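User: I'll paste a sequence; please echo it back and then give the predicted structure.

Assistant: Echoing your sequence first, then the prediction.
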Amino acid sequence: MAIEHVSGPGPARAGNVIVRPEAVGICGSDFHLFSGEVGALSGSRDFYPRIQGHEVSAIVEDPGDAATIDRGERVAIWPLLPCGDCYPCRAGRPNVCPRFRLVGVHLDGGLQQRLEVPARTVFGVGDLDPDSTAFVEPASVAVHALARGNVQPGEQAVVFGAGPIGLATTLAAAAAGARVMTVDPLPARRDLARRLGAERATWAQGDTQDDAQGDALDDALRDEITAWTGGDGPPLVVETSGETAVLPQAVGLVSAAGRVVVIGMSSGTARLRPGVFPEKEIDVIGSSCATAADFQAAINLVRANRTSLATVFSHHFPLARAAEAFEFAMKRPPDAIKIVVTVN
C-alpha cells in the first residue's frame, strides 16, 4: 500500500455525488485485496492499483443533480453496484449479482479525501457520528443474514463468532426480539456480545468428535446449547466466523426444521454427511452483502444502539498510517474489534 496524490473528481457528473470520506472501517474481506489475493484470483492484470475502503462515513460535498441529498449531510455508502439485468437482479436479489461491482473492491473506495459515487448508493444518517456511520455497512450484512434466516421474536438463536459481523448479528437478532447465545473464544469479545444483547456468551470447549450422525460436534458446547434450548436445539444458527469446522457443528446443533445461515467466508472444506439434511429437514442458507432495504434498516439499527456500539471501535489510525492499520488488523490482536481509518 502507498499513500499518493491522485487526481480528484471534478464536479459531480449526472446521477453521481461527490463526498468527503471521514471514517473507513477495515473489514476482514479487505485483507484479501490488500494482500494481492483478489487480484491474483481475478486473473486481471489491471485490477490494481485500487483505493480500498467500502465501510464509509462521508460528508456530501457536491450533491450534483440528486434532489434528496443535501450538501454537508453525513452519509453512509451502500457499496453495491449490480448489473440490473441478470437473474438475481430480476428476482430482486441484486446483492448476489454475479457481475456486481463494489466500491472499494472493484472501484476506488473511501480511503481518499474526495470520492464520486452514484447517488443511489448514498444514504443519509442524520446525527450519527462517523464511526457509527462507517459501521452501517457491516451492520447491513447482519440485517440481511437475519432476514434470510427469518429470525422470529422469542426464538433462540446461536451466533458463532463475535468479530464485527458476529457482534452486529448479535445486536440485530436481540433487537428483533430473539434470545441470543454468542460463541467466541475471546473473553473480551464475549463481554461485548453481552453488552450488545446476548443472553449468553460462551466458549464451551471439550472433546470434539464425530457423533453417530457424522457431524463434528464439540461435546461441551452441544451439552450447553442443548440444556439452554430444553433439549431441542436452537431453531436458528448463524455462522459468522469463517472457521471451516463450525459448519458441521452448526448443522449438528440446529434443531430439526431449523435454519443455519452462513455468512463467514472460507476456502476450506468441511466433512458433512448428506443424510442429516433430509433427516432433520433443515435449511442451510448462504448470506452475502445487503440490499438497499437492508442498508436502510441497518441505519435505523445503528441509530437506535449507537451508545452500546461505541465499545466496538477499538483502534483508530489516520489516513497516512492506513498501511499500518491493515497490517495491524491482519495480525488479529485479541484487543482489536473494529479498526477505523480517519480520513478528512
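The chain has two domains: 16-138+289-342, 150-286. The CA atoms of residues 314 and 336 lie 6 Å apart.
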